[in-house]
Each structure stands twice: as C-alpha cells, then as structure tokens.
Please model this.
Amino acid sequence: MTDDPSTATADRDATVDTAAATAPVPRPSDPASVARRLEAILLVIDEPQSLVSLAAAVAAPVPAVRQAVAALVADYDGEAGGPRRGFELREVGGGWRLYVREEYDDVVGEFVNTQAPSRLSQAALETLAVIAYKQPVTRGQVASIRAVNVDSVVRTLLARGLITEVFTDPDTGAIHYGTTDQLLVHLGINSLDELPHISPLLDDGSDGFDGEVLK
Model:
C-alpha cells in the first residue's frame, strides 16, 4: 500500500514547524550587543561566573564575551573616556562579578544599615545560625539546608557586617561565608566555641552534628 503523498508532506511541514519553534532565537554577536546582554546578566548574578558560563548565558562565543568583559572593565575604570564608576567588574576565583569599589564600602554599608530594620527577620536569624554553625559555607549550601532562596538575606547579613566572604572556590567560583567578630560582640561571646550545642534541640538523628559544625 502506497503512502498518501499529501499526508507525508504535511508530516514533514509539521516537523519543520516544530523544530523552528523550539530552535534558539539567534542573537546579535556584535561587541556592543554582547556587552549589553552581559551587563544585564552581571546585574543579577550573586556568584562570580566563568567566561564559559557567561557565554552560555548571553548566547555568544567565548572570545566575544572575553572581548566584551575587557571593554566593560575599561569602561567602568574610566579608561574609555567616561567617568570612573563607583563599581567595578572584577575577576575572583576564575569568575567575573560586579563589586562596589573598595573606597565606597563605608558609604554603601552606612546606607544599607539606615535602610534596614533594626531587628533581623526570622529568615535572617535562621540563615545566620546556619552560617555560624556550618562555616565556611556557600550560599547554595545554606539554601539547601533552609530549602529556600537566601540571596537577599545573605546580602543583608553582609551589609550588617555579621558575615563576610572567607574565600572563593577556585574551581566553582562559589563564595564561602563565615561570621565576623562583630557577631561575637553582639552575642557576647569570645569565640565560636562558646556557641551553644544544638544537638539537644534537634530531632533524633542529629548526633554528631555539633562535632561537624564546630571543627
């Protein structure tokens, strides 16, 4: 039995239409377009991203992203004829991220503190407790433990000076956080060794937790 040619043609057309609908939309690859898309991504990321990750995010070749990054660095530093910005694009641990320039840390810290409520929210307290007991710990690990997104809470704790960036993993670019001496002052203790043991407060199965978190 011979297949109906019209049916076969319709099937081919449907396949082509489906492929066209699911194919990625091509994006301009000129330096200016890549730089604009790159800026949009850099504004929302919380962890340094490698050139490969950024290239995938903006749908551009790695060499084009490398060129765009260099152009943005020069632009923000005032080397392109414009003003030197209050922020910079910095490479940390093999990844790139926007940072406030060091000379403006005090200004930003004071502003954030005046905008923030005097008391920490319950979410901030829970996040701070996880970091205190598990440090050094990444934002992703904290989010996994709390089962919620902790990006804004971590930013608040950083602005309050209660936690700090301890180091950046050279392989993943993930920032590891730890508590500061300011937290010890607020708690009225001299070291983390004086934090209360939490095993008695946890459900069964928590044996050994204190030993792990207070190494």
User: Anything to note?
Assistant: The domain at 116-213 is CATH 1.10.10.10 (Arc Repressor Mutant, subunit A). The first strand starts at residue 87 and ends at 92. Residues 19-23, 204-215 have pLDDT under 50 and may be disordered.
